[in-house]
Write a structure and sequence with these properties.
single chain; Butyryl-CoA Dehydrogenase, subunit A, domain 3; alpha+beta; four-stranded antiparallel beta sheet; 3 domains; Butyryl-CoA Dehydrogenase, subunit A, domain 2; four-stranded mixed beta sheet; about 15% strand; 10 strands; globular; 11 helices; Butyryl-Coa Dehydrogenase, subunit A, domain 1
Length: about 375
């Protein structure tokens, strides 16, 4: 399998990069952060992304989407990383669209997929319950009640949960807390009695939420996928998000490298550009090679997911682990080679470093995915 983009995919990448550079640059992130915007992203930008077809990239055409596939979703994510664009793309266009598209009933798909593609609905996945990502560890309980269930528990790191129109909650309908069997996914109205949502801005100025549910009533029509068997569907959506996060970190790392190279070529010391110093050249060359390796594994993961390969989860974890390390390296090297200015809020490099750290932890860090890769390889 050639790890290069087709002509159509290159056009999608160019379109996404051009649009987000013009309408969702780092300066917008600064403004949203400094103004303490209650939404945390530009709703106008999100409508524009929907008009460009990005919000519906994983939504079938029958439901108003563009159905461009996982590679295209990754290319949009890479452009988001290059510009540090704040948007609900990951939580809504990737996670929610995958969950509803794969596991939703016909009624759920009809009700939710068109507004996702149109950029008029925001959905948020409430999965994690601990400081570290552990999707099979679900203590939140859904007890039978009438023709449905009552859900009680707590969730953390719910991306865009503070502005979500609907929550997708992973709850346990049977078994113990760590049992992979017995997990069910539910649609929950965040305004329903018993739901408490608290916004928690992250270090990179993106927004997540903490969620508490106390006897929240849902009915049978709110179940997404199979009762007691929601983990495979959940993992499939998480793998899509992990691959897109890997692409986003690749974009952030590549842009950090470009900023660093420009500085090495223009900053002079001892009468010549510091990029002429061999020690810095070696570090830059090493980083270039790491970026190319990361790019290859990200493309491989996206194509495996798009094709529905059996080993797609392996490639998704490999991409997340590798790009997490490379993004950390690229941004750390950027800060170091820029010197003192790289540590100031006036320079953009600090924003890239924060995004790399936050994205690296989201849905499993390099250690989590390294262990998952080892498990796939039986080592």
């Amino acid at each position: 399998m050639a790890l290069v983009l087709t002509e159509e995919q290159r056009m999608i990448r160019s379109s996404a990069e051009g649009f987000l550079a013009a309408h969702g640059p780092v300066s917008q992130l600064r403004h949203l952060r400094d103004s303490r915007d209650p939404t945390g992203f530009s709703t106008g930008l999100w409508r524009g992304m929907a008009e460009m077809g990005f919000a519906g990239v994983l939504v079938p055409k029958a439901h108003g989407g563009t159905a461009l596939g996982m590679v295209a979703a990754g290319l949009v994510s890479e452009a988001i990383g290059r510009n540090l664009t704040l948007s609900p793309f990951l939580g809504t266009a990737v996670l929610a669209a995958t969950l509803v598209g794969r596991g939703g009933s016909a009624e759920q798909q009809k009700a939710l997929l068109p507004p996702i593609a149109a950029g008029t609905a925001i959905l948020a996945l409430a999965c994690d319950e601990a400081p570290r990502h552990a999707p099979a560890h679900i203590a939140t309980r859904a007890e039978p009640s009438g023709n449905g269930f009552r859900i009680s528990g707590a969730k953390t790191h719910v991306l865009d949960g503070h502005v979500a129109d609907r929550l997708i909650v992973a709850a346990r309908t049977r078994g113990c807390d760590c049992d992979p069997d017995g997990i069910t996914l539910f649609l929950v109205d965040p305004k329903a009695p018993g739901v408490e949502v608290r916004r928690r801005p992250m270090v990179d100025s993106r927004n997540a939420a903490e969620l508490r549910l106390e006897g929240v009533q849902v009915d049978g029509a709110d179940v997404i996928g199979e009762l007691h068997a929601g983990l495979p569907l959940l993992e499939a959506a998480l793998d899509a998000a992990r691959a897109c996060l890997a692409a986003e970190m690749l974009g952030a790392a590549a842009r950090s490298f470009e900023i660093t190279l420009d500085y090495l070529q223009t900053r002079e010391q001892f009468g010549r550009p510091i990029g002429s110093f061999q020690a810095l050249q070696h570090r830059a060359a090493h980083l270039f090679c790491e970026l190319e390796l990361a790019r290859s594994v990200v493309i491989r993961a996206l194509r495996a997911l798009e094709a529905g390969e059996d080993r797609a989860p392996f490639y998704a974890s490999l991409a997340k682990a590798k790009t997490g390390e490379v993004a950390r390296l690229a941004t750390s090297e950027g800060v170091q080679m820029l010197g003192g200015i790289g540590m100031t809020d006036d320079h953009d490099m600090g924003f890239f470093l924060k995004r790399a750290r936050a994205a690296g932890e989201t849905f499993g860090d390099s250690a989590f995915h390294g262990a998952r890769v080892a498990q796939f390889l039986n080592i």
